[in-house]
């Protein structure tokens, strides 16, 4: 049984049912029942039209469930006539399903979960494992999301920017459980790029590919983080880099710059440098300036301060960091727990170390480690503080 084929057919079948009048939750249940039937039947009797078979069986499952539910008798008028079996329409409605799963009424966490479930075809258990929450908790989150979008119509244009933000959230979760969320986000973004001609979709896909190309070099054999400057560039995936740069160049040629294209351009400059010392930091600063014009967020300004520190020296970077502190309300530089963003402190530590102030750098590395969002970052920052303290004691 080709599980990848079933997963690729799921969103199209789900969208057909919703367009025929099924509410989202009932349609999703019916498609899941049809998938179970496919797993049972297809190994010995594979259909000639896989999508048509899946749509037909899912629709029958929906009708059976609707007719069996006395509380939903009022719906029987619109589902009484079953469409004749036959080939499924060639039109791919997957794009509308992306819009539905990233509906503005959903929280980011719910939109991500629903996208992975409905578009990605992952099971609730797989999604729960990936996000390290109990399966029952994830099931409740998905159920609430399905109820929220149950009455949303699919004939209205969606917001591509919202879909891209959801996919980028998925990508940044990386890998946990038995699901590689970064690879899944790339697969879904490729699918989206095939359905909509939009330079920012291409920009996000390029960004993901360029980041993913460095994945093997990001951690050492003991699981510790390896900073970009220290990574073995021979372990970078040159095929992904070439693909990402090609997609980015085509998007930039359309002269409709967006934030994901700008971020991808920065990633491409890192990927294009044979060594860390040969990185074109001046051009990276210029791209951060473009990105600031598109989205003047504290994170962008923070990353720009690092680039300025590399291009013009650590004191220039510290000055840029001071400008960020002066221009941004304190709440924008704090996490949901009210603590300063860990990476802000880590950036300050790095720039002070570059400037030769080892005592301040060691103290700031230790502070950043205390606030780190995960164990790998905490251990890395702790080692940085210990390294500088050891140098000071010599």
End-to-end Cα distance: 64 Å
Record field, number of beta strands = 2
Average pLDDT, rounded to a whole number, is 85
**Beta fraction of the residues?**
under 5%
What order do the SSEs take from the amino end to the carboxyl end, as H and E?
HHHHHHHHHEEHHHHHHHHHH
Global geometry: elongated
Give a description of the structure.
- It contains 19 helices and 2 strands.
- 39% of the residues are buried.
- The protein starts with a helix and ends with a helix.
- It has 394 residues and is mostly helical.
- A hairpin with a 2-residue loop joins strand 1 and strand 2.
- About 3% of the residues have low confidence.
- It has a two-stranded antiparallel ribbon with strand order 1-2.
- Helix 11 packs antiparallel against helix 12.
Quick structural overview:
The model is unreliable at 88-92 and 335-339 (pLDDT under 50). It is built from 19 helices and two strands.
Output the keywords.
394 residues, mainly alpha, two-stranded antiparallel ribbon, 19 helices, 2 strands
List the helices and strands and how they pair.
Elements: H1 3-20, H2 24-41, H3 50-68, H4 76-79, H5 94-101, H6 108-119, H7 124-130, H8 135-148, H9 160-172, E1 175-176, E2 179-180, H10 181-195, H11 199-212, H12 238-252, H13 259-272, H14 281-294, H15 298-312, H16 314-327, H17 342-354, H18 358-370, H19 375-393
Antiparallel strand pairs: 1-2
Helix pairs in contact: 1-2, 1-3, 2-3, 5-6, 6-8, 6-9, 7-8, 9-10, 9-11, 10-11, 11-12, 11-13, 12-13, 13-14, 14-15, 15-16, 16-17, 17-18, 18-19
